[in-house]
Specification:
Strand content: 15-25%
CATH topology: Carbamate kinase
CATH class: Alpha Beta
Low-confidence stretches: none
Protein name: Uridylate kinase
Structural class: alpha/beta
Mean pLDDT: 94
Distance between the termini: 32 Å
CATH superfamily: Acetylglutamate kinase-like
CATH architecture: 3-Layer(aba) Sandwich
Largest sheet: 9 strands, mixed
Bound molecules: uridine-5'-diphosphate
Helix content: 25-40%
Shape: globular
InterPro entries: AceGlu_kinase-like_sf (IPR036393), Asp/Glu/Uridylate_kinase (IPR001048), Uridylate_kinase (IPR011817), Uridylate_kinase_bac (IPR015963)
Subunit structure: Homohexamer.
GO biological process, one term: UDP biosynthetic process
Number of strands: 9
Pathway: Pyrimidine metabolism; CTP biosynthesis via de novo pathway; UDP from UMP (UMPK route): step 1/1
Amino acid sequence: DQPAPRYQRVLLKLSGEALMGDQAFGIDPAIIFRLADDILALRAMGVEVAIVVGGGNIFRGEGLAKAGMDRVTGDQMGMLATVMNGLAMQDVLEQRGLEVRVMSALSIPAVCESFIRRRAIRHLEKGRIVILVGGTGNPFFTTDSGASLRAIEIQANIMIKATKVDGIYNADPVKDPAARRYDQLTYNAALDQRLGVMDATAIVLCRDQGMPMMVIDIHAPNNLVRAVMGEPVGTLVTA
Ligand code: UDP
Protein backbone atom coordinates (compact mmCIF):
# COMPACT_ATOMS: atom_id res chain seq x y z
CA ASP A 1 0.00 0.00 0.00
CA GLN A 2 1.10 3.54 -0.79
CA PRO A 3 1.34 5.86 2.22
CA ALA A 4 -1.55 8.32 2.29
CA PRO A 5 -0.94 11.93 1.31
CA ARG A 6 -0.83 14.41 4.19
CA TYR A 7 -3.14 16.81 2.35
CA GLN A 8 -6.23 15.60 0.49
CA ARG A 9 -7.33 18.88 -1.09
CA VAL A 10 -4.61 21.27 -2.14
CA LEU A 11 -4.66 24.80 -3.43
CA LEU A 12 -1.57 25.33 -5.56
CA LYS A 13 -0.48 28.88 -6.29
CA LEU A 14 1.72 29.16 -9.37
CA SER A 15 3.38 32.52 -9.61
CA GLY A 16 3.40 34.00 -13.09
CA GLU A 17 7.03 34.95 -12.81
CA ALA A 18 8.02 31.38 -12.13
CA LEU A 19 6.17 30.22 -15.27
CA MET A 20 8.44 32.27 -17.51
CA GLY A 21 11.62 30.48 -16.38
CA ASP A 22 14.72 32.11 -17.82
CA GLN A 23 12.76 34.01 -20.43
CA ALA A 24 12.11 37.73 -20.09
CA PHE A 25 8.38 37.40 -20.71
CA GLY A 26 5.54 34.93 -21.15
CA ILE A 27 5.53 31.21 -20.53
CA ASP A 28 8.37 28.69 -20.77
CA PRO A 29 6.68 25.58 -22.22
CA ALA A 30 9.20 23.28 -20.53
CA ILE A 31 8.09 24.56 -17.12
CA ILE A 32 4.37 24.14 -17.64
CA PHE A 33 4.84 20.69 -19.16
CA ARG A 34 6.84 19.65 -16.11
CA LEU A 35 4.28 21.15 -13.76
CA ALA A 36 1.55 19.26 -15.59
CA ASP A 37 3.42 16.02 -14.86
CA ASP A 38 3.62 16.92 -11.18
CA ILE A 39 -0.10 17.67 -11.07
CA LEU A 40 -0.85 14.40 -12.87
CA ALA A 41 1.14 12.62 -10.16
CA LEU A 42 -0.96 14.31 -7.48
CA ARG A 43 -4.17 13.19 -9.17
CA ALA A 44 -2.80 9.65 -9.36
CA MET A 45 -2.47 9.82 -5.56
CA GLY A 46 -6.14 10.82 -5.34
CA VAL A 47 -5.36 14.39 -4.25
CA GLU A 48 -7.85 17.09 -5.21
CA VAL A 49 -6.10 20.00 -6.89
CA ALA A 50 -7.17 23.60 -7.36
CA ILE A 51 -4.70 25.98 -8.96
CA VAL A 52 -4.48 29.76 -8.73
CA VAL A 53 -2.23 31.24 -11.39
CA GLY A 54 -0.51 34.60 -11.24
CA GLY A 55 0.08 36.96 -14.11
CA GLY A 56 3.34 38.74 -13.37
CA ASN A 57 5.05 37.07 -16.34
CA ILE A 58 2.74 39.02 -18.63
CA PHE A 59 1.53 42.09 -16.79
CA ARG A 60 1.48 43.80 -13.41
CA GLY A 61 -0.79 46.76 -12.69
CA GLU A 62 1.62 48.44 -10.32
CA GLY A 63 4.33 49.03 -12.91
CA LEU A 64 2.05 50.91 -15.25
CA ALA A 65 0.59 52.95 -12.39
CA LYS A 66 4.11 54.12 -11.52
CA ALA A 67 4.46 55.33 -15.10
CA GLY A 68 1.32 57.43 -14.71
CA MET A 69 -1.46 55.12 -15.90
CA ASP A 70 -4.63 54.44 -13.91
CA ARG A 71 -3.94 51.74 -11.34
CA VAL A 72 -7.35 50.12 -11.54
CA THR A 73 -7.10 49.74 -15.30
CA GLY A 74 -3.61 48.32 -14.91
CA ASP A 75 -4.82 45.83 -12.32
CA GLN A 76 -7.67 44.75 -14.59
CA MET A 77 -5.07 44.10 -17.30
CA GLY A 78 -3.06 42.12 -14.74
CA MET A 79 -6.11 40.02 -13.86
CA LEU A 80 -6.66 39.31 -17.56
CA ALA A 81 -3.03 38.16 -17.77
CA THR A 82 -3.83 35.47 -15.19
CA VAL A 83 -6.63 34.25 -17.48
CA MET A 84 -4.10 33.70 -20.26
CA ASN A 85 -1.81 31.70 -17.98
CA GLY A 86 -4.79 29.68 -16.77
CA LEU A 87 -5.80 28.77 -20.31
CA ALA A 88 -2.24 27.61 -21.03
CA MET A 89 -2.31 25.40 -17.92
CA GLN A 90 -5.70 24.03 -18.92
CA ASP A 91 -4.30 23.01 -22.27
CA VAL A 92 -1.25 21.16 -20.96
CA LEU A 93 -3.28 19.38 -18.29
CA GLU A 94 -5.91 18.27 -20.81
CA GLN A 95 -3.16 16.94 -23.05
CA ARG A 96 -2.33 14.61 -20.17
CA GLY A 97 -5.88 13.33 -20.04
CA LEU A 98 -6.98 15.25 -16.98
CA GLU A 99 -10.39 16.85 -16.69
CA VAL A 100 -9.99 20.57 -16.14
CA ARG A 101 -12.25 23.55 -15.53
CA VAL A 102 -11.08 27.14 -15.63
CA MET A 103 -13.12 29.41 -13.35
CA SER A 104 -12.66 33.17 -13.38
CA ALA A 105 -13.28 35.83 -10.75
CA LEU A 106 -14.11 38.10 -13.69
CA SER A 107 -16.93 36.85 -15.91
CA ILE A 108 -15.67 35.92 -19.38
CA PRO A 109 -18.37 33.44 -20.38
CA ALA A 110 -17.09 32.85 -23.90
CA VAL A 111 -13.78 31.62 -22.50
CA CYS A 112 -14.34 29.91 -19.15
CA GLU A 113 -16.72 29.40 -16.25
CA SER A 114 -17.22 32.05 -13.60
CA PHE A 115 -16.12 31.22 -10.08
CA ILE A 116 -19.01 29.80 -8.12
CA ARG A 117 -17.78 28.34 -4.88
CA ARG A 118 -20.11 25.38 -4.63
CA ARG A 119 -19.56 24.48 -8.26
CA ALA A 120 -15.78 24.63 -7.78
CA ILE A 121 -16.04 22.22 -4.85
CA ARG A 122 -18.22 19.88 -6.93
CA HIS A 123 -15.62 19.85 -9.72
CA LEU A 124 -12.94 18.91 -7.19
CA GLU A 125 -15.07 16.12 -5.75
CA LYS A 126 -15.46 14.73 -9.25
CA GLY A 127 -11.67 14.65 -9.64
CA ARG A 128 -11.41 17.62 -11.96
CA ILE A 129 -8.55 20.07 -11.74
CA VAL A 130 -9.95 23.54 -11.10
CA ILE A 131 -7.89 26.48 -12.36
CA LEU A 132 -8.94 29.68 -10.64
CA VAL A 133 -8.07 32.82 -12.59
CA GLY A 134 -8.69 36.54 -12.28
CA GLY A 135 -7.22 36.69 -8.76
CA THR A 136 -9.78 38.04 -6.33
CA GLY A 137 -11.52 39.96 -9.11
CA ASN A 138 -10.60 43.24 -7.42
CA PRO A 139 -7.84 45.77 -8.06
CA PHE A 140 -5.17 46.41 -5.40
CA PHE A 141 -4.99 42.72 -4.54
CA THR A 142 -2.52 40.07 -5.63
CA THR A 143 -2.96 36.53 -6.77
CA ASP A 144 -1.32 35.43 -3.50
CA SER A 145 -4.28 36.96 -1.70
CA GLY A 146 -6.57 35.35 -4.27
CA ALA A 147 -4.93 32.01 -3.49
CA SER A 148 -5.45 32.43 0.26
CA LEU A 149 -9.05 33.47 -0.24
CA ARG A 150 -9.87 30.56 -2.54
CA ALA A 151 -8.02 28.03 -0.38
CA ILE A 152 -10.24 29.04 2.53
CA GLU A 153 -13.42 29.14 0.43
CA ILE A 154 -12.94 25.68 -1.09
CA GLN A 155 -11.80 24.27 2.28
CA ALA A 156 -8.42 23.16 1.04
CA ASN A 157 -6.10 21.51 3.57
CA ILE A 158 -3.18 23.70 2.57
CA MET A 159 -2.18 26.55 0.28
CA ILE A 160 1.11 25.77 -1.48
CA LYS A 161 2.90 28.57 -3.25
CA ALA A 162 5.27 27.26 -5.91
CA THR A 163 7.68 29.96 -6.92
CA LYS A 164 11.27 30.82 -7.90
CA VAL A 165 12.71 30.42 -4.41
CA ASP A 166 12.70 27.22 -2.37
CA GLY A 167 11.18 28.69 0.77
CA ILE A 168 11.14 31.68 3.09
CA TYR A 169 14.54 33.10 4.09
CA ASN A 170 15.58 35.52 6.81
CA ALA A 171 17.00 37.79 4.07
CA ASP A 172 16.79 37.93 0.28
CA PRO A 173 18.81 34.86 -0.82
CA VAL A 174 19.57 36.52 -4.17
CA LYS A 175 21.25 39.50 -2.53
CA ASP A 176 22.61 37.94 0.66
CA PRO A 177 24.56 34.67 0.32
CA ALA A 178 24.38 34.15 4.10
CA ALA A 179 20.56 34.12 4.05
CA ARG A 180 19.09 31.15 5.94
CA ARG A 181 15.96 29.26 4.92
CA TYR A 182 13.28 28.50 7.51
CA ASP A 183 11.82 24.98 7.54
CA GLN A 184 8.89 26.23 9.54
CA LEU A 185 7.62 29.65 10.60
CA THR A 186 4.61 31.10 12.40
CA TYR A 187 2.23 33.43 10.56
CA ASN A 188 3.24 36.29 12.85
CA ALA A 189 6.96 35.70 12.34
CA ALA A 190 6.40 35.70 8.59
CA LEU A 191 4.51 38.99 8.93
CA ASP A 192 6.97 40.64 11.35
CA GLN A 193 9.99 40.02 9.21
CA ARG A 194 8.35 41.43 6.08
CA LEU A 195 9.83 38.60 4.10
CA GLY A 196 9.04 39.53 0.52
CA VAL A 197 8.04 36.11 -0.78
CA MET A 198 4.38 36.38 0.26
CA ASP A 199 2.23 39.46 0.69
CA ALA A 200 0.87 40.45 4.08
CA THR A 201 -2.81 40.31 3.08
CA ALA A 202 -2.38 36.70 1.99
CA ILE A 203 -0.66 35.75 5.26
CA VAL A 204 -3.20 37.54 7.50
CA LEU A 205 -6.11 35.85 5.74
CA CYS A 206 -4.57 32.40 6.24
CA ARG A 207 -3.59 33.21 9.82
CA ASP A 208 -7.08 34.34 10.79
CA GLN A 209 -8.69 31.27 9.24
CA GLY A 210 -6.03 28.75 10.26
CA MET A 211 -5.06 27.82 6.71
CA PRO A 212 -1.53 26.30 6.58
CA MET A 213 0.75 27.76 3.89
CA MET A 214 3.83 26.35 2.26
CA VAL A 215 6.40 27.93 -0.06
CA ILE A 216 8.25 25.54 -2.37
CA ASP A 217 10.56 25.74 -5.38
CA ILE A 218 8.60 25.42 -8.62
CA HIS A 219 11.66 24.10 -10.48
CA ALA A 220 12.66 21.13 -8.34
CA PRO A 221 11.15 18.00 -9.93
CA ASN A 222 8.80 15.97 -7.72
CA ASN A 223 8.79 18.70 -5.06
CA LEU A 224 5.05 19.06 -5.20
CA VAL A 225 4.42 15.39 -4.58
CA ARG A 226 6.91 15.40 -1.70
CA ALA A 227 5.25 18.48 -0.17
CA VAL A 228 1.82 16.87 -0.36
CA MET A 229 3.18 13.69 1.23
CA GLY A 230 4.24 15.83 4.17
CA GLU A 231 7.97 15.73 3.51
CA PRO A 232 9.94 18.76 4.73
CA VAL A 233 10.45 20.64 1.48
CA GLY A 234 10.34 24.43 1.43
CA THR A 235 8.92 26.42 4.33
CA LEU A 236 5.71 25.61 6.20
CA VAL A 237 3.83 28.53 7.77
CA THR A 238 1.40 27.71 10.56
CA ALA A 239 0.17 29.12 13.89
N1 UDP B 1 -4.36 41.51 -9.77
C1 UDP B 1 -5.38 42.26 -9.21
N2 UDP B 1 -6.21 41.67 -8.29
C2 UDP B 1 -6.07 40.40 -7.88
C3 UDP B 1 -5.00 39.64 -8.42
C4 UDP B 1 -4.17 40.21 -9.36
O1 UDP B 1 -5.56 43.42 -9.56
O2 UDP B 1 -6.86 39.93 -7.04
C5 UDP B 1 -3.50 42.09 -10.84
C6 UDP B 1 -2.37 42.97 -10.32
O3 UDP B 1 -2.19 44.06 -11.20
C7 UDP B 1 -1.18 42.03 -10.38
C8 UDP B 1 -1.46 41.23 -11.63
O4 UDP B 1 -2.89 41.08 -11.60
O5 UDP B 1 0.04 42.72 -10.49
C9 UDP B 1 -0.78 39.89 -11.72
O6 UDP B 1 -0.92 39.16 -10.51
P1 UDP B 1 0.32 38.89 -9.52
O7 UDP B 1 1.24 40.07 -9.53
O8 UDP B 1 -0.23 38.47 -8.21
O9 UDP B 1 1.00 37.66 -10.23
P2 UDP B 1 2.30 36.81 -9.79
O10 UDP B 1 3.13 37.63 -8.85
O11 UDP B 1 1.81 35.57 -9.13
O12 UDP B 1 2.97 36.47 -11.07
